[in-house]
User: What shape does this take?
Amino acid sequence: MSKEYKNFINGEWVDSVTGETFENRNPANWDEVVGVFPKSNKEDVDKAVAGARHAFKEWRLVPSPERGEIMKKAGDIMVQRKEKISRVMTREMGKVIAETRGDTQEGIDTAYYAFGEGRRMFGQTVPSELPNKFNMTTHIPIGVAGLISPWNFPMAIPTWKIFPALTCGNTVVFKPASDTPATATLFIEVLLEAGVPPLAINIVHGTGTAVGIPIVEHPDIDLISFTGSSQVGKIINEKAGKSLKRVSLELGGKNAEIIMDDADLHLALEGALWGAFGTTGQRCTATSRLIVHEKIYKKFVDLLLESTQKLKLGNGLDESVDVGPVVNRGQLETVHSYVEIGKQEGATLLCGGEPDETGDLKKGFFYKPTIFVDVNRNMRIAREEIFGPVLSVIKVASFDEAIDVLNDTDYGLSSSIYTRDVNNAFRAMRDIQAGITYINGPTIGAECHMPFGGVKETGNGHREGGWAVYDFFSETKTVYVDYSGKLQKAQIDNR
Ligand code: UN1
Assistant: This one.
């Protein structure tokens, strides 16, 4: 019997109004059902929003240091449950256990960061232009936050949204990706045990169309934070725009690593492997393009091929495995269709290029780590987000060409350059069009206390992570206190 899960709405664990359900299966072994979840719709969302709206009346008045302490407790509970959460996460989305432990750790770090922010929430005091008058800004809660998260970081990304949303005094209606509802549910259990008021946190399981869109369109939801594809992000922005909701979008990427001729090649190689094939390439920060200087191109490609062929595929619960499955059949098909496109476009397939169905692997959705060489910047495999273990290698003749190729994309999330030349490193920091640039590190590995987000079609200018996300989740209130005892007319009485 597989475990049956529920929504948490209006303070209660409940089925969906229709009683319909969906299954969540293990991508490493599709016969294994991880759990059965409520298939919800607009009516479930309405109930959740009503609960959250009600809870906001009191939660907004709880001092933010006290809210932060609840987040700290949540972090402490997650420390205790780190292994359990990580194993569930590997079972439901496939990435290897070392990485799901890292994902849970990122959630813990985000909790502890929220604890600190609860005591900061600084406003500013500013001199008034009039005598006997005092000016300041404060942060105030906004209302009900609608949070929609993806499946590739089933714990970290929900915590990036939920901890700051709650710490800032908002209440939450949360829809996790339908590929990773179990990890999300474990997180809600943690929050309730830590002391988040039950009505302040709601989880509604289901599809983007049946649950996500009603959240985005709901008149009683004040802000939306979404992580997912650029295509869906545009739809969300348009729909939310009708009611002028505040919207934070973290969308696609086509991240590149530049390897200059003066780079430490072994370091660059480790970075490329980790960036391209970690999480089976399913990160919005994944390295999907390698831009390699012609002087070291041949040597580097040989090293890359040799190391890639050593990567071990398998069930992520096996500690010796390097690369897990892709998340589901649809993703496997997308990845494979891009491989076909790459071949038709004239790129040379260096390795991989097909599913791995050896032995038990045929029970899941395993795809061999794939490298294309002789790629040029105009090919679709060099321009479109694939979200799988496919790496395109592009040869360049100079630093300037490398930067130009890197920037020649609709996206701008993460980026990386390996060089020992400090001048080029600083020019790269200035000239690369991306929200994140790593010098001598891979494109992945964001730390939770730093702003995270991108330029161009990667987002709409907001940042998650760090202090920046606390601005997104709170309203700036400007306050003037006139203690002169008389009417003072700004711009008139003082001129
Ligand atoms: C994502 O790729 O969706 O930088 C988030 C990283 C992670 C977060 C990535 N810490 O790779």
Summary: The domain at 255-439 is CATH 3.40.309.10 (Aldehyde Dehydrogenase; Chain A, domain 2). Residues 106, 152-153, 283-285, 444-446 surround 2-aminohexanedioic acid (CB under 6 Å). The mean pLDDT is 98. The chain has 15 helices and 21 strands.
